[in-house]
Amino acid sequence: MVVPKTAAAWPSPRFKMQQMQHPQVTEKNKMPEPAAAGLQAVLTDHENVLAELVVDLDPTLRFAQQTLVLTSHRFLASGNGSASWNAWTLQPGLTLHYTDHAGIGTLELHDTTACVGRWRFTLALSLPALRLLKQFEEQSEALRSNAVPADSTALAEPEESDEPGLFTQEKHEPPSTWVLLRLWRFAQPYKKQLAMGFALTMTSTAATLIPPYLTIPLMDDVLIPFQNGQQIPPGLVAMLLAGLFGAALTAWGLGWARTYLLSLVSERIAADLRTAAFDHLLQLSLDYFGGKRTGDLIARIGSETDRISVFLSLHALDFATDVVMIVMTSVILFSINPWLALITLVPLPFIAWMIHVVRDRLRTGFEKIDRVWGEVTNVLADTIPGVRVVKAFAQEKRESKRFHEANKHNLAVNDRLNKTWSLFSPTVSLLTDMGLLVVWAFGIWLVSHSQITVGVLTAFLAYIGRFYTRLDSMSRIVSVTQKAAAGAKRIFDILDHVSNVPEPAQPVEPASLKGRIEMNNLGFRYGNRAVIRGLNLAIEPGEMIGLVGHSGSGKSTLVNLICRFYDVTDGSIRVDGTDIRRFGVASYRRHVGLVLQEPFLFFGTVAENIAYGKPDATREEIVAAARAAHAHEFILRLPLGYDSLVGERGQGLSGGERQRISIARALLIDPRILILDEATSSVDTETEKEIQKALDNLVQGRTTIAIAHRLSTLRKADRLVVMDRGQVVEVGPHDELMARKGAYFRLYDAQARKAEADAALDAPLDNGLALPAQPAAVPATTGAHLG
Prior knowledge:
extended
């Protein structure tokens, strides 16, 4: 649609539609009126506005608004709040680039020779900026190929993520019933049992069809002749009754054997599916977990596999029985009277049409119910582990409200689906009843014209009862089938996900590592965000390296790459000359010890937590590791010593005690490479001294990479590596870097000044003098934050 120059006011109706459709065009991010007026003047005929972004920083990083607009032919940028506009024609060589660092996003426009425009914004606008970039690239490509996108007015929506450019969420697509066929992979080991179960189903179903057939001679040869004055033949009656009893007993025995056998098989299939999903989940890289909620993953592996188990053990078995029963009953009905059998099939087309219509609604409905139930589980998974924080901040009502809202949403989604299902089932019953009515009418007409006997009609009606009952049962299985399909899809979404840290095809076994680490031209990106750029560093065996730098400089990302929690985007990391991607993931990580800022302890005993990395460790080895970690004394003070339960996540221990158990855990595996990520930042000074003693034992003879908030704790490091914006800017010992008076000197000085200022404010008052109304000004550099 053309945006007319003569429009009375901006935005146009078309742009208002875009505002509703695309979140980057909101009241908060609305084009200033002067810029809007100026844009109307510069737009040409047949030039469509595709996207806009109002950035909130000027080149000096002060808050100010500037507007970027993408049209069908040009890229335009307004002046700082003015009505003037700069324009660049979309042509080959004109490119738009997005970067972000330290909370500031940047869009740069380049032509073939240089950067022609640069705009900065806070990361709150990162998603709108990425959408603008996506639309720019699509429009440029369309112009290069002389093609217009199918919907040039609609901004391409990137996949939503919990963090811009970091983790992507899977798309929600309605599950197909065919996904249940993929369960055959887990059923293959039980082929013999399944074949036996199918044979039992056939024979038990055949046994249940015998009694109606025996009613024909019972009616025509016994009861009706008796009403006409003839004697009842005892031998015939005894034989018929014995046949009825034998058929019932046979059907019961075969049915029990079938149900028991197939239930055992279905439970094992579900258990194998659950185990496979969990095992595969453990092999996925950390970026997968970053985009998922804990409660959702628990629901998938727990409740979804239970649902599939119930489906396989009950409903799939019933479905197979229904199919066999309907086929056998149809054969018998046509053998008795073809015309009457055809009348029986009258409701089938209507029922089949209803199943087709309802199935599509149920398919999407149950998949949505699963997602909504995941929201309920997520609230529980957030609140229960964090109950101490909830109570500490008196947020019980808030969490209760969150749960009520999630539960209410779940109820609303279920209610909408139940409206459809509640109409479907009675309608099927009505159709089968109408079919039975038609059979009665036609059957009476046939009896009155002596074309069939009363016994035949009675048997026919008995078979029809079984036929319609099974038909109604099959229609009801539509619901549980779609539930199972939705659950299977969510599980196969896990199984189909490929880890970003793959196992090598021919792994090299790291038998005896020395611990030399080389990083060559290292690069790493989180989605569209470059975190590490062109990093080169060599660490010698047994050397202790301290990583320092501002928050967001890439320190934690670097150690995550060394641990191979992620794989590098560019360059390589080599240990003892071998690219770590050639090592088996698990075998390589056995040589890497990790001590985190927030140690994670599992529910279990102290000994089990220390031996987590080496489950076969002896008690002597566990005690020796605890002694080296300065944890032995406090462990002995616990009620049961090393056999004391620490509670979930170690809640029964203090922060320093948890940290020393974490250090003992790392000591026990005797790693060649040791990572210390802020290991002492969250404890008090006295506890830090105890932990530091343990760390001194831990780092001896190991290649150590330490990240520390307090630079003073890194004085024992052989070298300090200063990082900034994902690059190494300085390397050297503490004294040498201080003498250079470069980046490290500024960091150390800022931290020292801040410590002095904090000490001055905390100092006791002398001579009863009060503090001044305004404290002494602290230099701006004291605000530097490390780690």
